[in-house]
Amino acid sequence: MSKENGRIGSYRERIQGLGSVEDVLSFRFSDAAKLYSAYLNPYLVWISRFIGFNKSFRHASGCYLEDSKGSRYLDFLSGFGSLNLGHEPPKVLEALRQVEHYPNILQSYPNPFAGALAQYLVRLTSEKLGKVFFCNSGTEACEAAIKLTRAATGKKVLVYAEGAFHGKSMGSLSISGRERYKKPFAPLLADTKCVPYGDADALDKVLRQGDAVAFIVEPIQGEAGVIVPKNGYLKSVRKICDQHKVLLILDEVQTGMGRTGRLFCYEHDAIEPDVLLLSKSLGAGVMPIGAMLTKNEIWSRAYGSIEKCLLHTSTFGGNTKACAAGIAAIRTLISENVIENAAQTGELLISKLVVMQKRFTVLKAVRGRGLMIGMTLARLKGNKPIMEGALALWVVRQLFKRHKIISAFTLNNYDVLRIAPPLIVGKTEVNFYLNALEDVLKSAEKFARLRLVKETAKV
Ligand SMILES: Cc1ncc(COP(=O)(O)O)c(C=O)c1O
């Protein structure tokens, strides 16, 4: 900040010498790290350096990124599942150019793009989910569901699953399953109850108490470590919720938009939710957008009058650009058979990983559906706080350092290496990944022997 004789300068003076968008495009990692450390969060920069991500990425397209030295990196994380169509999908970018001059935000105006995207979503679900609320992220979709179900029923108790991840705003956090993220923010929402994931009998027992408004659950738990419940779990959940007149909220923020080989993961189980939550790849990772879908009668009970229709709103929710991106993303997913590719490529990848598992003692388990895959790795002795003894983090570093592959572990379980490439991934990328993993796991066996495997990670 420019100060002359103790006087703070004019706005013009104060921004003098700061980077324009064009300048920022040519910033190196060190420039970015300096700014990020000073003004955002220095520890995130530390983590980035620790993993080895200290590169100046310049360009991204499809499954690949390129750094300032022209090196190419394979993305097997895809923005935690936000880039189902890969980086910079051409048809989505084209849609944004098409709406360039159309008003993006006009409050109290029925934006045709919001209406059109809602129609796509309603058509693509069972059509029983007839009303849509647009917001800007996964956690906001979850907040919308909490408010909707309470307002529609007058009941309070929200039931959720151990290990669940629904976001980090106060409501979503209250029904997420990791104490470490919750503790500093207490008290969170009262009137919540937690049940073990995958245990229908436990759910039945809690719902029998008669005070629950809704059960919120991920069809496959992502951040808990890609936990796929036993066949029939979701069907039982649906039945139990119906028996006790409790609403079923499915959080498909991560599993939705083709990730598991169907547009929505619940299709595998032939059930329907009362409330469906979407975000991440809904805007192809180009525009932030979230959505909550629900049945007409539930929506009407909560918001169906002129007095109640403004009880839950969002400034940016349903803006033109986000919805245009959503329309183009859905059309591309369907017309280019991207969902089928996720199913087939995922099956191939899982089958090869299962074979690989037999050769490596550090690889404890492989599981997943479509291109949502998790691998549990052994745990090491020595508890650096960031690592919690997780070999998965070491593998993430080596995949990046040696093979220029971007990956990560899961947020609520550091023992699990996640595989979540863009759904457009082909055989070339899959073979490259498998060869790289083979190489890194060979070293991991040696590394684990040196560091002594402390205990078997929870599989
Ligand atoms: C299942 C699920 N729900 C909700 C969220 C929260 O989404 P956001 O980070 O956009 O708030 C996530 C994020 O990873 C998620 O995986």
State the helical fraction.
Answer: 25-40%
The chain-level mean pLDDT equals: 94
Give the name of the CATH architecture of the largest domain.
3-Layer(aba) Sandwich
CATH fold assignment of the largest domain: Aspartate Aminotransferase, domain 2
Indicate the low-confidence ranges by residue numbers: none
Binned strand content? 15-25%
Number of domains: 2
Number of strands: 19
Which molecules are bound in this entry? pyridoxal-5'-phosphate
Number of helical segments with 4 or more residues? 17
Query: So what's the oligomer here?
Result: single chain
Q: Give Rg in angstroms.
A: 23 Å
* N-C termini distance: 53 Å
Could you write a compact summary of the structure shown?
40% of the residues lie in helices and 18% in strands. It is α/β, with parallel strands linked by helices and 459 residues long.
Features of the shown structure:
binds pyridoxal-5'-phosphate; 40% helix; Aspartate Aminotransferase, domain 2; alpha/beta; 18% strand; Aspartate Aminotransferase, domain 1; 459 residues; seven-stranded mixed sheet; single chain; four-stranded mixed sheet
